[in-house]
Specification:
This protein is an alpha+beta fold. Helix content is 40%, strand content 10%.
């Protein structure tokens, strides 16, 4: 998620519920995010559809589908 008000709200909600959470930098590629999710055994992905950066709309909806696909492990074809 980008630096939007929903980010700390989501983090505090996870902490309040006692849920283990991991904040991942929004600039990672979808593949890198998917590998981090697979390594940590994550089951839920919370994201923003997009955000404004330098006067341009950054659409994260296209990148969110990549982490949801099962990542290929290193060494496997």
């Amino acid at each position: 998620m980008p630096m939007i008000p929903e980010l700390p709200i989501t983090m505090l909600a996870c902490a309040r519920l006692g849920v283990v959470h991991s904040v991942v930098f929004g600039g990672f590629s979808g593949e890198a995010c998917g590998l981090r999710a697979a390594d940590s055994g994550s089951r839920v992905l919370i994201y923003a559809d997009g955000y404004w950066r330098n006067g341009k709309w950054v659409d994260q909806r296209a990148m969110r589908t990549l982490p949801l696909r099962p990542p290929k492990k290193k060494g496997n074809p």
